[in-house]
Structure formats: C-alpha cells, structure tokens
Amino acid sequence: MSGTADRIRAAATQLFAELGFAGTSVRAICKAADTNVNAVSYHFGGKQALYQDVIDRISDDRLASAQRILGQPPSDVADLERRLVLFAEETLVTYLRDPEPLVILYAETQQRFRNCDASALKNLAKHHEVLLGFLASARRRRLLRKGVDIDIVAGALLERLNNQVHHAEFIEATYGTSIKDPKYRQHWTQQTIQLSLFGAARAPHEDS
Q1: CB of 130 closer than 8 Å to CB of 71
Q2: What CATH number is given for 50-198 in this structure?
Q3: Cα 53 from Cα 13, distance rounded (Å)
Q4: Which phi and psi angles does 151 have, rounded to 5°?
Q5: DSSP 8-state secondary structure symbol assigned to residue 76
Q6: Contact at 8 Å (CB) between 12 and 24?
Q7: For 198, phi and psi rounded to 5 degrees?
C-alpha cells in the first residue's frame, strides 16, 4: 500500500488502542494521519474494514513468527527448550516494541470480537495451533512426560506472555522490575519455559 495508507493504519492502531473502536472516528484517524477524510474509504473501504485490517495484520505477524521458530519438530529436549525460549522472547520483544496491537486484542477478546469478523479468530487460532503442533511433535518424539496436556501448556504459556506485557507498567511499579528490562526478561523467559516443561519439584533421581 501507499505511504498514506501506512500512515492511516499507524494512526488508527494507536487510536483504536487508546479509545476503542466505538470511540475512534474516521475524522480523528485522518487528522492524526495528516490526510483528508475520504482517505480511509479510498484506501480501506471504511472504518470497519480498516479496523479489520489492523486486527488481521496483528494476527498475521504473530503467525509468521510462530511458524518461523516452531515450524519444525524439536530434535531433543534441549532444542525443545531453546526454541520455546526463543519464541517467548521474540513474542515479548515484539509486543514491547509495538504494544498497541496487544491492547486492541485484549479489548476485542473481552467484547467477544464484536467489532470484527470471524477471520480474526481463525488467524489467532492458527497461531495457537502452531504452538500446539510443535508440542505435539515433541510428544510424538517422547520428549514430554506421559499424560501432559499440551493444550493447557500452550494456553498457559500464551496467557503468561500476554499478561506480562499487558501489565508491565503495574509489575514494574510494584516490584521494581519487569520484562521491559532485558536482563530480567531473559531470566523470566527461561524460568517460565523451564517451569512449563519441567515443573518446580525436584526429580526423584536429581542430586540434592
């Protein structure tokens, strides 16, 4: 798309995150994008279609990242852990660099995606399915303990990643640090993946 369309999309993403779909007007979007009020209709077909475009691009970016990192089965437990850490780290960095999309997704989730069509849900589900597929391939290779519910593992991991970004300001104000600090983010990511894969209890064969 043109530079004007990119400016409109960027302005709309910020305003949708701050004011929500209903609270954002086409006039406000065009003013923020420094263009005329007909530009949204010309480039996107209207406010609803622009909002759908923003949601779809969020989902597409998440999906591409997951496919690149988790697209192939892990070779061993170390590779399983390494790639999940990479996936978690990249997800966090992406959201910290561009937090507005996550705010929009939270709002839409709470409103049952009433402001966009079902394609957004399908794209988000594909992202979840890539992670599930990766964990399923690890299970087939007997890299996970018997009885592990990979749906719960995947859901818990994605929820923790989203919450750490969504509540980063509160966490930092309360505890003095958050995943915005690279050193703590690396520690948090490694600990989270290790807990997801191995739990916290000492294995019976582990030395004291």
Answers
A1: yes
A2: 1.10.357
A3: 10
A4: -65, -40
A5: S
A6: yes
A7: -120, -10
Q: Which residues of 60-90 are buried (b: 16+ CB within 10 A; e: fewer)?
A: eebbebbeebbeebbeeeeebbebbbbbbbe
Query: Which amino acid type is present at position 11?
Result: A
Name the DSSP letter for residue 111: T
Query: Do 144 and 132 contact (CB within 8 A), yes or no?
Result: no
- φ and ψ of 38, to 5 deg: -85, -5
Of the candidates 131, 64, 53, the one whose C-alpha atom is nearest the C-alpha of residue 94 is 64
Structural domain boundaries of the chain?
A: 1-45, 50-198
3-state SS, residue 131: helix
- CATH code for 1-45? 1.10.10.60
Q: Residues 6 or more apart from 59 whose CB is under 8 A from it? A: 120, 123, 124, 126, 127
Tokens matching residue 143:
């890299």
pLDDT at residue 208, rounded to an integer = 55
Going residue by residue through the chain, which has 208 residues, state the pLDDT in tens, using 9 for 90 and above.
579 999 999 999 999 999 999 999 999 999 999 999 999 999 999 999 999 888 877 767 778 889 999 999 999 999 999 999 999 999 898 888 888 877 887 788 777 777 877 666 676 678 889 999 999 999 999 999 889 999 999 999 999 998 898 889 999 999 999 999 999 999 999 999 999 999 888 766 666 5
Cα dihedral 141, 66, 200, 188 in deg (nearest 10) = 150
So what's the pLDDT on residue 99? 80
